[in-house]
Amino acid sequence: MAVLTKEELNQRLADRFGQTEDESDISFMEDITDTFANLETNANAEQLKDLQTKYSELQKKYRDRFFNTGDDSGNDDDVFKPTPDPEPKVLKFEDLFS
Questions:
Q1: Would 61 be classed as within a structural domain?
Q2: How far apart are CA 34 and CA 30, in angstroms?
Q3: Do the domain assignments include residue 78?
Q4: Is residue 53 part of a domain?
Q5: Which domain holds residue 45?
Q6: Do 33 and 10 form a contact (C-beta atoms < 8 A)?
Q7: Among residues 9, 30, 43, 49, which is most buried (max CB within 10 A)?
Q8: Chain-centre distance of CA 88, in angstroms?
Q9: What is the pLDDT, as a whole number, of residue 46?
Q10: Rounded to an integer, what is the distance from CA 57 to the centroid of its chain?
Q11: What is the average pLDDT score of the chain?
């Protein structure tokens, strides 16, 4: 089964029905066109909703990270904390030759 674009589908319908003036053919073509347009609108609305949700989450994370610095919720995964250097081992001059 081929997946067609809107233009390809309209062209195939025009080839199939030609320039008929039969009311049922015209109604069928209108139904297909309206259905295709509705599916596109629903897909775009769903994508927009997902993007808005992701944007809101990122905005909240940004705000929390920079404006809630005194919050000790234990969620410091994003903050770099350097590990302390280990104490250096003290060597004596005699230890170098043994």
A1: yes
A2: 6
A3: no
A4: yes
A5: 1-67
A6: yes
A7: 9
A8: 49
A9: 86
A10: 12
A11: 81
Quote the CA–CA distance of 42 and 87 in Å, as a whole number: 63
Percent of the chain with pLDDT over 70: 88
DSSP states of the chain as a string? Answer: -----HHHHHHHHHHHHTT---HHHHHHHHHHHHHHHHHHHHHHHHHHHHHHHHHHHHHHHHHHHHH-TT--SS--TTS--PPPPPPPPP--GGGGG-
Question: Which pLDDT score, from 0 to 100, does residue 69 have?
Answer: 63
**Is residue 57's pLDDT more than 90?**
yes
Identify whether the C-beta of residue 49 lies closer than 8 Å to the C-beta of residue 15.
Answer: no
What number is the average pLDDT over the span 85-96? 86
Q: How far apart are CA 12 and CA 17, in angstroms?
A: 9
Q: 20, 19, 17: which is closest to 9 by C-alpha?
A: 17
Q: Is residue 41 part of a domain?
A: yes
